[in-house]
Specification:
two-stranded antiparallel sheet, mainly beta, 4-stranded antiparallel sheet, single chain
Amino acid sequence: FALARPRRRIAPTRVADGESMSVHAAALKPPDPEYALRGHLDPVTAVRFVPRGDELFVASGDTAGRVKLWDLSSRRPRAAWDASDSDLGVLEVHAHGDGESL
């Protein structure tokens, strides 16, 4: 999966449509990724930023039930494990307490 910074916020615009008013959001080109984190063999279904002290990590989960904890300074996985044997895979990842456990 890829990490990118947003280019700008999308501001809704009110447009008169006959007698009704509707809200349309401007279409933007997706941002260019700053870098890609490669390592999952299956589609990524969950991503969470995990701050730990001065460092920032990303936890990601996939449809096969695997979770990876990525070190953003090295852009490599710091840890990986099979978290679920469900047919649904990993739907969410959460940091508990001070970010020491997922």
